[in-house]
Specification:
By secondary structure, the chain is mainly α. It has two domains: 1-162, no CATH class; 164-300, no CATH class. Helix content is 76%, strand content 1%. A hairpin with a 3-residue loop joins strand 1 (51-52) and strand 2. Helix 1 (10-44) runs antiparallel to helix 2 (58-80), helix 1 packs antiparallel against helix 3 and helix 9 (246-269) packs across helix 11. The longest helix is centred in the middle third of the chain and has 53 residues, at 165-217. The protein starts with 9 loop residues before the first helix and ends with a helix. The relative contact order is 0.12.
Length: 300
């Protein structure tokens, strides 16, 4: 049997879509702010001889507009709470997915001996979502009738739960564990490439700023000051690199991939039907966003 994201409930898809939209909004606004700061510095570095009429300096006016744009974007971003809603909806989507997988393959606490797995699933799911609402998550069901009326337990989830232990194990290992392990490996490689590119770019910009500063110190340069522009560009690149968290995520995602590889070996060789519920629970704990964030903070 094959079990994919399309087989998850509508509430997952709605939370996932909101998270993606808010992530694009938050990241796009931050990128625009950094570009406007660099543009403002570039316009300020232009010669003051570029004037219109009696003393009106066009580069200065455009630079002021760029800085004003940074403030407007920052205010709009804070009002819409794009970053917090991105993170909360991502947490909600991943929590729902994890609970669905546990239910479908008899992971703890929904093992084969559970008297009423459906009722327990609904209770545990609502309990976790209630905790997210306490910290600001906006439940899509409160404003979306389709999401509110959709079933939390889909037909494919029930079908997978009714399968034998061998089918459930094969499906979970292939469509969840290996899929997640490959995702973390790809993410690690992407972060490493991004780190190399941004580190080289920031170093080059800093070296150029140093070179021009030394020339100016010995009066060997009469051109308009570009050190400030180079410095602002390097600072923007460093800020973007830190915002994307490439370096901390390399360590975190590498460790998660290693842990999943260990769990994969155990599930294929030594985990029995009795040990299966706790093994699934441990795997879901490893791939949780909270675990990844903890690793990123403490292993960077």
């Amino acid at each position: 049997m094959v079990f994919r994201n399309n087989d998850l409930p509508h509430l997952f898809h709605r939370s996932d879509a909101i998270a993606i939209t808010r992530q694009r909004e938050s990241v796009g606004a931050t990128r625009a702010q950094l570009l406007l700061l660099v543009l403002g510095a570039a316009l300020a570095a232009l010669p003051s001889s570029l004037t219109l009429g009696d003393g009106f300096q066009l580069p200065g006016a455009l630079s002021a507009l760029a800085y004003a744009g940074v403030l407007v974007l920052g205010y709009r971003l804070s009002r819409r709470r794009a970053k917090s809603q991105w993170q909360l909806n991502r947490s909600a989507a991943e929590f729902i997915k994890s609970m669905c997988w546990r239910y479908a393959v008899h992971g703890a606490p929904f093992d084969s001996h559970t008297a009423d797995a459906d009722a327990l699933f609904a209770a545990r799911l609502e309990e976790g979502l209630r905790e997210l609402r306490k910290v600001g998550w906006q439940d899509p069901r409160s404003s979306d009738e389709e999401t509110a009326s959709a079933e939390l337990i889909t037909a494919p989830m029930r079908q997978l739960r009714a399968k034998s232990f061998g089918v459930r194990k094969e499906t979970y290992v292939r469509d969840r564990l290996i899929e997640q392990r490959n995702w973390y490996r790809r993410s690690t490689e992407n972060s490493r490439r991004a780190t190399a590119v941004w580190s080289a770019s920031i170093s080059l910009l800093t070296l150029l700023a140093l070179f021009f500063a030394v020339l100016r110190a010995f009066s060997a340069l009469d051109s308009p000051p570009v050190e400030g522009l180079l410095s602002a560009t390097a600072a923007a690149g460093l800020a973007w690199h830190e915002i994307r968290r490439h370096q901390p995520l390399i360590a975190a995602h590498s460790l998660v991939a290693e842990d999943l590889a260990t769990m994969h070996t155990a599930m294929e060789t030594s985990v029995s039907d009795v040990e299966w519920p706790s093994a699934v629970y441990e795997t879901e704990r490893i791939v949780s966003p909270q675990h990844t964030d903890w690793l990123a903070r403490h292993r960077s």
